[in-house]
Structure formats: structure tokens, C-alpha cells
């Protein structure tokens, strides 16, 4: 808990180990995956080469970093929601190689009861159109099997979203079923980029949407920049600053527009969708823009819609914040704090960890904060039984962490 309030981290990250593929990937695919090596000849964290192509296009596109003198700023206006990471904040995790013990320690620091885990390297692992679907499936299976084992350290506290091989919707459905029924996944994550010509309003994805409904699990959109199939590459080229801003916000907006206007939520009324790590102050504006055009185009272009855009969002959608955004209160008043959730984004460089929960409590009143802290519980369908089990696990972990005789 955080100051007596239940807290579900809707989007916490892991740092995958360098031996993930040598341990978990089907042996017949291992020679297609090349990891960077250190001077000792051992694998290290970094960009992975799969079938001769790096998992992220950042290395390819960021060819010319512009260097210049560091100048003092003359601005008197503080940055909106700016973050400065405290030195040493991740020492406990680094010393433990970001293992599951460190994950649970990070949860305790922020007051998180239950965390849903997302990848780091894995965000870009299969983010390209030209990947062999069977290789994509094998990579997803390797990651999903590893993250399942990772969560076994404290399965009542650690949950995970499954990685799906989106190059083939049928393989994606098979892997979702396996992850939910055999491994205990509470949802899946998708990048909002178009994949192989199929965008999120396409009927191509209907079987996958239906499976999420039938399995009663959440679909989470999570961008990460660096996807080969993102059109932000064409627009903004080598400058990662441009692409990071645009991909995290604009890709999410386009996905929401597509799903509402195409009737995805009309035809899949029980589908729960999260828009993660993109703040959420953009949501009211997008909903208002769709509603502006609703009277002119609904009858001619979307006669199947029976609810307003805001009604669909409030029934089917959640959008995440990270605690320090100055627009949280205003956004909550427009879309409802109960349709918001909060992410620590641990352990990423641009995270507010260790002050995500503190920032939220400083930003909004306690009642509103309580709804946002609990938003992830509604998003993923956690109940009081889940919290009771998490409490028991947390108490056990705290006891185990105390040296004998202390």
C-alpha cells in the first residue's frame, strides 16, 4: 500500500537477462539471434541482431549525433512535469542484476501491491513487418516462458502481460491462449504501430479481440520508439527526440481513433484496452474531436455506433499516467479518475521512480489519487482476493529479507 491506499502498477518494466535466449529460445532458432559481446567475449545488454537486422532502428537512424557546447538556460519557466533521477536510486537493482528480488524491493519502495510487468528489450524484439512468423512465435515463447519463471519469485505480487507474434493473427491467438491458461498472464501488450498493412480498425484483428474478451484479459498498447514499422521514422528521421515525443503520443491517439470509429468497442463490448506510458492529457481532446465530427459522419460512415466516443472510452478504456504530469487533475475531471491508472515505469531512465506515488499524492487530492492508484486493478480485473494474496506474499518477503537474529 501507499499511505493506506491500494496501488496497482499498470506498467512496470523488467530488464531481461543476457542469457534469456540461450536458455529459453528453441535451439533451432538460436543461430538467428546474435547478442552484443563484451571484451571478455560474454554477451551483454544492448541491441540484438535477429536475421541480420537490429531489433531497434535507433542505431541505424541516429547516425549523426550533433554535439555542441552546453549552455546555461535563460528560461525562467520550469519544465512541465520535468524529472530528475536521483543518483544511486537503482543501486539495489543493479547489484542484483535486476532480478525478481529487486523487482519486489522496488514495489515496496513505491508502495505497490501488485505490478503488471512489461519488457524492455522485448518492446522492440519483434517490431517489424518482415520477420518470419515462426521465428516471431519462438521469440515470444522464449520471453513469455522466462517472464513466467521470473514472476514465480512472488506470483501474487508479480503478474505479466504476454508478448504476441503479431505477424500472424492466428499464431498470436494461440500464444495468448497458452500464456493465459498455462502461464497465468493477465493480458497482452501490442505496439500501436501498423503491422504488415493491418491497422487496429481492421477486421483482421477481430479473432484476437474476441479471445481477449473470452479469456477476460486486458489488451495493452505500449509504444517504445525504434520500431522498424513506425511511420514516425519517415516523418522525423534520425532525430530520436522527435520520434520519442511523436511515437508515444501520436501513435496512441491514432490507435484510439481507429478503434472507436471502426466500432471495435461496439462489436467487442467486453474488451478492456489500456493506453500505456503515453501520459493521458491527450485523451479528452481526441474524444472531443471525434464527437465534433460525430453528427456529420456517424450515419454515413459509422452507422453501427450506438454510443458516444466518451461512453465507449469510459466503458472499455484506461490511460496511464506517471504521477508528475501537471494535467492529471484536469484530465481526471474530464474522463474520470476511474479510467486512469498509474505506471512507475521502473527501472527506465526516464522514470520518476522512486517518487511516482509521492508525486501523484502531491499533484491531486487523496480521493482522486486513490482512484488512480486502483485503476490498474479495474483494468486487469484484480479483486480483494488478489490483494489479500499480495499482502501475504509481501509480508513473507519482508520477513525473509530480515537477517536472522536482527
Search tags:
TIM Barrel, 406 residues, 11 strands, globular, 8-stranded parallel β-sheet, alpha/beta, disordered C terminus
The gyration radius over C-alpha positions equals 21 Å
The residue fraction in helices comes out at 40-55%
First-residue to last-residue Cα separation: 24 Å
CATH level-two architecture: Alpha-Beta Barrel
Report the oligomer: single chain
CATH topology: TIM Barrel
Q: Uncertain spans, ≥5 residues at pLDDT below 50?
A: 402-406
Task: Tell me the total number of β-strands.
Answer: 11
Can you describe what's shown?
This protein has 406 residues and is α/β, with parallel strands linked by helices. The protein has one domain (8-19, 99-401): Metal-dependent hydrolases (TIM Barrel, Alpha-Beta Barrel), CATH 3.20.20.140. It is built from 17 helices and eleven strands. Strands 1-5-6-7-8-9-10-11 form an eight-stranded parallel beta sheet. Helix 6 (169-183) packs parallel to helix 7. The longest helix has 22 residues, at 240-261. It is globular and about 65 Å long. The relative contact order is 0.14.
What topology emerges from the helices and strands here?
Layout lengths: L7 E6 L6 H5 L8 E2 L14 E2 L2 E2 L3 H4 L29 H4 L5 H11 L3 E5 L14 H19 L6 E6 L5 H15 L3 E4 L15 H10 L2 E5 L9 H5 L3 H22 L2 H4 L4 E5 L5 H20 L7 H8 E5 L6 H8 L4 E3 L13 H8 L2 H8 L1 H6 L3 H18 L5
Helix pairs in contact: 5-6, 6-7, 9-11
Structure summarized in a few sentences:
With 406 residues, the protein is α/β, with parallel strands linked by helices. It is 43% helix and 11% strand. The longest helix has 22 residues, at 240-261.
